[in-house]
What we know:
The complex is a heterodimer. Chain A contains six helices and five strands, in the order ββαββαβαααα. Chain A is α+β, with helices and mostly antiparallel strands. Chain A is globular and about 45 Å long. Mean pLDDT of chain A is 94; it is low at 153-159.
Amino acid sequence: MAVNINVNGVPRSVDVDDDTPVLWVLRDVLGMTGTKFGCGLALCGACTIHLDGKPARSCVTPIAAAAGKRITTIEAIGATAAGKKIQQAWIELDVPQCGYCQSGQIMAAAALLTAKPKPSDADIDAAMSGNVCRCGTYVRIREGIKRAAQGVTSGKKGA
Amino acid sequence: MTSNRIIDVVESDGVDLSRRRFLSVSAAVGGGLLIGFTTGPSIGTADAAQNVASPPFTPNAFVRIGADGQIVLTMPYVEMGQGTYTSIPMLIAEELEVSLSQVRVEHAPPDEKLYANPLLGVQATGNSNAVRGAWQPLRQAGATARTMLVSAAAKRWNVDPASCRALSGVVIHAPTGRKLKYGDLAADAARMPVPANVALKRPEDFKLIGTPAKRLDTPSKVNGTAIYGIDARPPGVKIATLAQSPVFGGRVKSVDDAKAKAVKGVRQIVRLDDAVAVVADHMGAAKKGLAALVIEWDDGPHANLDTRQIVAELEKATLKSGAVAQNIGDADKALAGAATKVEAIYQVPFLAHATMEPMNCTVHVRKDGCEIWVGNQALARVQATAAKTTGLALDKVVVHNHLIGGGFGRRLEIDGVTRAVQIAMQVEGPVKVVWTREEDIQHDMYRPCFFDRLSAGLDGNGMPVAWNNRFAGSSIIARWLPPGFNNGLDPDTTEGAIDLVYALPNVHVEYVRVEPPDIPTAFWRSVGPSHNVFVTESFIDELAVAAKQDPVAYRRALLDKSPRAKAVLELAAEKAGWGRPLPERVGRGVSVQFVFATYLAQVAEVEVAKNGAVRVRRVVCAVDCGTVVNPDTVRAQIQSAVIFGITAALHGEITLKGGRVEQSNFHDYQMLRMSETPAIEVYIVNSSEPPGGMGEAGTSAITPAVTNAIHAATGMRVRKLPVANQAKQV
């Protein structure tokens, strides 16, 4: 049965089982490969997307649960105020190494900035500790969030 | 400016470059020349078409300049996060006199003749030696191209080449101010003789080398456009996932696939001797199908294998003599006459790589050829195994390499490619085989476990007069590069155990090769040193404690003959505030090493809570890696290596029970998280020595710095990794 979803503002209809994780719909059905597969159990955050502006692990989110909600992915996060600032800070600090986890890191960081425009270190720990980076770019991720926060005045436009 | 560069490369990888790559591979195999490149780069502009008539300037396998002025640098080393796609172009661009924003980077095709790593003898990226290997040849490649462009301009102007100079992609005739762009000179330069000798720039004239260059790959890695192997999507691709025998050496006995075939989107079940794969429209269906399979396994001879048996074998092996890796003086005699004797046994476990991008490989097998999309550190081996598995000739196998979502040694191996080709041979059309995280962890090729037996003798002043070390474990080189294994030894397994930085009068080091039964072992970030530096830098710490001396002072007293090691030790100690008071249950630990041709010292500040929880609060690292190409990459690599090392030191362990790997995903094979990340400070020593390796050195040094700090905080000596819950007892 077809499921109707909205991805980055575009209505889409996909013919998959209701319990198919959003991750595979994005990557394999819609061909949007920016969202990454890391663990399949919401343990690493590589697949983080936004559902109605809130971070969600797409590897464990059934497509049925996304119906009627706005899905935002890394491909479109630069169109949000927080996402744009985060991406810019990431470029300025050369945060990524292998880069594979960074889509998820950026989605989690953008959600954090949207909710808390001036996050404390504890806020960053809480929001980002679900995202694994095997290259260990955490030091620069933290710096990046702080740098982006200096340029974010309002979180209301996020996602 | 640079934002589309890497994107161009990786996006074009799957489509229009494939044919040209195929041609170039064929040509290289046949004649050792990249004549395939004469069809011109796929830039997608009208100019590209003209290039067919006007061949680009290709003075060597690394530089190509089209008539349109497009400068393409072909990268023999892969990008897996270590910054190679910035540091290697810097070497060429420096001598070619262009800026990084003027170049485009392409992956090299598989070709051992053109692209072999000079330090390994095979086309591979590993052992922290990309910059070391490229330092001379790739600067030479740039200088050769620049010299020929200058000669071409001088000839056209009929002037002395010495009166011309190259600057920012233009040749200038200084006396008259005339200028010609590289693109306008490309056709002429191609006809100039290749100079036998070219002068390289003096370090004081460097414009790029030594400056913090922005990474060329960053823009594509922040917006989802960077393409990794797992993102390859050739038209019509199906997705497969697999279950391999949970016991190494086991076989499939029977498969009931009725329920799996009924899953929506499942297309095919592929059965191999020791694995079953489900091919589907998308990974969700493939995983659901896999879960619905009923597979009965024949576990084979290792059904009862347990890690404890493997360790017991290693322990037994250290009671017999092994191959002598190093002997200085007479350690036994010196030990017998020593005032104090110190003995210790150390152990390190199997480790998985857990690259964030799970293992994957996309393959299209046709009757007359095979095409592969993958991210791999050893491309020629990818091509070779596909040819061997399919029975096709080597030149019928086209390999598209990609950005790598974490290598750490895992992607120096081709087991995943072989497996994917086996599956693809039974599938019509292209198929992308994706390992689940569980398969990735449980069918990794592991950093070997080791067992080490050490003894040392101290004189009346507490200084070491004898050092004995005998250790047992797997040799990766013996399998991966057999000519490198000689007389029971290889340079990797012993690195960090021999040629210590310290002046020790009597040293005896032996290695006993013991391979675990059917458990594949492989390189893992910092490899030999990841094991040896933990052992030796812990043991020297034990000697300092036995001598009742300060660990930094004790080491420094042994470093008179190693001034670069002494300098990094002193710098790290000074910056860390060594000796300054710390709160209760907080300690500092130090380590110093010379591995991967780099001197490095670290001081870790560690807190051990009353419940045994260990937290690394701060790490100070001083590094002398010779000439620095990109200082920001050096800093990034140390930050990275330190976190990689702490992860393993505190949490990392793969164990087997009933022949099966017990860990499966990030809940039981834990990674360091943001909340556990220490402050990391990096101090780089100015040096004009040749470059040393930077990808791995930080990983081996951090482990003993952390465990020595635990000792300083609690008095507990960690002799077996990981630390895990050991500190609960103190």
